[in-house]
Specification:
3-dehydroquinate dehydratase; about 35% helix; five-stranded parallel beta sheet; DHquinase_II; amino-acid biosynthesis; Rossmann fold; single chain; 3-dehydroquinate dehydratase activity; 5 strands; alpha/beta
């Protein structure tokens, strides 16, 4: 089983930025924990601050991987292009957010990618990624 964790803009700053919202752990450290917990599956991680690079990655893995766990960051609320990329591939995508976006600013309540994702996990901090991975394992 192959699963991609895909992170969008500013998520390279996890552990440093707005710790009261996003926590103090870097994603790289958390990813090491995930790889140890799910050693029976092939986990890949990719992060970009650039919309086109995220689209390219979705296209690259979207016909051969078993799942994508995707935190699109702010692009969640702005990108029709990412929604189109998800729609264009066969690999199912789960949208994740560390914070509960519905408890935050009103502009964060609208997701362009939710309608084309298999599901949404929000508000569980870093654990949101683990929950997405577990879903793919359980439904394989």
């Amino acid at each position: 089983m192959k699963i991609l964790i895909l992170n969008g803009p500013n998520l390279n700053l996890l552990g440093v930025r707005e710790k009261s919202i996003y926590g103090s752990q870097s994603f790289e450290d958390y990813f090491k924990q995930l790889k140890a917990e799910f050693e029976a599956i092939e986990l890949e991680y990719y992060q970009s601050n650039h919309e086109g690079a995220l689209i390219d990655k979705i296209h690259e893995v979207g016909f051969s991987y078993d799942g994508i766990v995707f935190n699109a960051g702010a692009y969640t609320h702005t990108s029709v292009a990412l929604a189109d990329a998800i729609s264009a591939v066969n690999t199912p995508v789960i949208e994740v957010h560390l914070s509960n976006v519905h408890k935050r600013e009103a502009f964060r309540h609208k997701s362009f990618i939710s309608p084309v994702c298999k599901g949404v996990i929000a508000g569980f901090g870093m654990d949101s990624y683990r929950l997405g991975i577990q879903h793919f394992i359980q439904t394989k």
